[in-house]
Design brief:
Two copies of one chain form a homodimer.
Chain A: H1 4-17, E1 22-23, H2 25-32, H3 36-48, E2 52-55, E3 61-64, H4 73-80, H5 99-123, H6 128-139
Antiparallel strand pairs in A: 1-3, 2-3
Helix pairs in contact in A: 1-3, 1-4, 1-6, 2-3, 4-5
The structure holds a DNA duplex.
Chain lengths: 141, 141
DNA sequence: AAAACTGTTATGCATATAATTACAGATGAG
DNA sequence: CTCATCTGTAATTATATGCATAACAGTTTT
């Protein structure tokens, strides 16, 4: 799995906690600890789904455009990480005349997608608001 | 995620379906479609957990040593894939004086391990016997 | 003693991930 | 209008991971 899901959670949490709910890619990148171009790539996807709006030009940046109690980690997982549970290499599918070899790929695909569904259902119960609260409670131990 | 979980499921299913529940790494590797050394590596781990026994020397190989209705995909996931949900690169942790940047890593770690727990609970309900049945029913559509 | 296995390590190669650079397009300030 | 600033996006490079392959010691059967 790559880290775009992580980055999305980070960015939205950050925007959610800022007073004006706004920041540009430079500021966000410093917090995320990555390159601004990477932040723009992820936030570009979030923009297409309507989670943020962008303002170009001087003083521009990204503006949160969603209710943090309505956005779930499930939404973000589906958008940015779906399919990553299944590895690119999978067993079987060769020329072996073996029942397992011939059918394992369909079976494993169901196993991976079933697992992913369980994962998504779990993440559907966690909202962005929950995450912002976690961040804040970590700040006051 | 790497494919050792997949390989483990494949190997145990294969052994389970063979009449004598036995095969050597060459035969298994052909079915899995990989190199025998890779099969030996995974089956070595399964041996340490008692799922299989090995017989060295001529006519040797791996022998299934478990009840397929008792072994779950959860067991195999924990053994071979636990921790793979969390990417190696994670956000935050830099020098940014930002609440999110300072605490996101602990929060994300909980998010990933919580997700993995949901995944494991799902896989705990699928046994190796279920998989062998799936393979066989794929064979007769 | 020889042959057939496993167990394990080392090496090379392919792929995936992240960093970086670059630049076109859009917008607001002056 | 023009310039500075910011997003959107593509191309390139660097690094990490995953897999294939080769090699060899150790074990067991014949």
């Amino acid at each position: 799995m790559n880290s775009e899901f992580n980055i999305a959670v980070h960015c939205l949490t950050l925007l959610s906690l800022k007073k004006d709910h706004m920041a540009n890619s430079d500021e966000i990148a410093k917090s995320v600890c990555t390159h601004p171009a990477r932040v723009r790539k992820v936030l570009g996807l979030l923009r297409k789904q309507g989670y943020v709006t962008t303002k170009e030009g001087v003083g521009g940046g990204y503006l949160l455009n969603a209710d943090s109690s309505k956005v779930t980690l499930g939404d973000l997982y589906r958008l940015l990480a779906r399919g990553s549970l299944q590895p690119s290499w999978c067993s079987g599918g060769g020329e072996s005349a073996c029942v397992v070899s011939e059918h394992i790929q369909e079976v494993m695909e169901r196993i991976y997608s079933g697992g992913e569904l369980a994962l998504e259902r779990h993440y559907d119960n966690i909202t962005l608001l929950d995450v912002t609260r976690d961040i804040q409670s970590e700040n006051q131990p």
